[in-house]
Design a protein that fits this description.
The protein is an alpha/beta fold. It has a single domain, classed as Glycogen Phosphorylase B (Rossmann fold, 3-Layer(aba) Sandwich), CATH 3.40.50. The chain has a six-stranded parallel beta sheet with strand order 2-1-3-4-5-6, sandwiched between helices. Helix 4 runs parallel beside helix 5. It is globular and about 50 Å long.
Length: 196
């Protein structure tokens, strides 16, 4: 037999595609009990990603209540939380880790230890700063703040920011990192009955 008939037989056999696995996004965000905007935005983000066909797992990562607890209790709680998060990542095997955080000394002290324990690049980490003290990055007197900030963003595949001003300040400070300006998730306003 010649090569042509073999090619014809191969072409007539049904082609099956590998099943498409949905993108798994592991979302780390503030606990709902702390109040403020962060815990209110996470369900909107998760619903939007689910609507795009993603599988979502959400874990709390922050204080359980705003300003409560001794330093010892906070360290113990963060350590337990970190173990729980890493166990969930190992078992669930996400494709992307999304971390919604603020950028301040308090947030750095909480989030940098977690970020340093995340695998670098696999899966990729997306940091979403919901408020950033990027103006402090250019001040030489803030050396420790600058070192901690640089260490945090270098762990990320992408850093999401809420303004062009923040983007310019971060790019000037640490240009090797990818930055994107985004909107916070929101529900569109319902049209009034008069306009229907």
């Amino acid at each position: 037999m010649n090569g042509t008939s073999t090619e014809a037989n191969a072409a007539s056999e049904p082609q099956t595609e590998a099943p498409h696995r949905r993108l798994r996004v592991f979302v780390l965000s503030a606990f709902s009990t702390i109040g403020g905007p962060l815990p209110k935005l996470t369900p909107l983000l998760a619903d939007g990603l689910r609507g795009c066909g993603c599988d979502i797992a959400v874990e709390g990562w922050s204080a359980h209540t705003a300003g409560a607890g001794t330093l010892g209790n906070k360290v113990h709680s963060r350590s337990r939380g970190s173990v729980k998060i890493h166990r969930r990542m190992r078992d669930w095997k996400p494709d992307v880790i999304y971390v919604a955080i603020a950028h301040s000394w308090r947030a750095l002290s909480r989030d940098l230890p977690l970020a340093l324990r995340l695998p670098r690049g696999n899966p990729p980490v997306v940091l979403h700063f919901r408020g950033s003290e990027s103006h402090r990055l250019q001040e030489p007197s803030n050396r420790a703040f600058r070192v901690a900030s640089r260490a945090l963003v270098r762990r990320a595949a992408t850093v999401l920011l809420l303004s062009r001003e923040e983007e310019r300040e971060w790019r000037r400070f640490c240009p090797e990192v990818r930055y994107e300006v985004v909107l916070n998730p929101f529900l569109p306003a319902c049209p009034s009955r008069d306009r229907l």
